[in-house]
Write a structure and sequence with these properties.
Elements: H1 4-30, H2 36-63, H3 81-108, H4 112-136
Helix pairs in contact: 1-2, 1-3, 2-4, 3-4
Length: 138
């Protein structure tokens, strides 16, 4: 089975995914202004994807004999669309860096399934980062 280190990393990833799924959904609810309809829809779509990530990771933690966390990392919604998107871009950058660490640790432990799961999630996170970066361009 997986090491305590890897299970702890997976639980931290769950916390991050829960955080952004709530953060993005609340932003979807709270965004106002000229672009709120289009940006709000993107936020909702990404929030749902992030919740699916949390579920997939929790299922993996359970399979590996750990107990999936239910606690999200700190949530910051922001006030303006620009602040929201900047917070989200930063959150995605953190996830990208951390998920690369998880991929390396899983690979080092010979856990091919966890490595593959995070390679797939990493691709989504890079896409989300690209989306938020693009929306922030002037």
């Amino acid at each position: 089975m997986a090491s305590k280190k890897l299970i702890d990393m997976l639980n931290q990833a769950i916390s991050m995914e829960l955080q952004v799924s709530i953060q993005y959904m609340w932003q979807h609810v709270r965004i106002y202004g000229m672009h709120s309809e289009s940006v709000g829809g993107i936020l909702k779509e990404v929030a749902i994807t992030e919740m699916k990530h949390a579920e997939e990771i929790a299922e993996r933690v359970d399979y590996l004999g750990g107990e999936p966390t239910t606690k999200p990392a700190p949530i910051t919604v922001g006030k303006t669309p620009e602040e929201m998107l900047s917070l989200n871009k930063k959150a995605e950058e953190g996830a990208i860096a951390f998920y690369r660490e998880i991929i390396k640790t899983a690979s080092d432990e010979g856990d091919i399934v966890t490595r593959k799961l995070f390679e797939d999630i990493l691709a989504d996170e890079e896409d989300h980062h690209n989306t938020f970066s693009g929306l922030l361009e002037k």
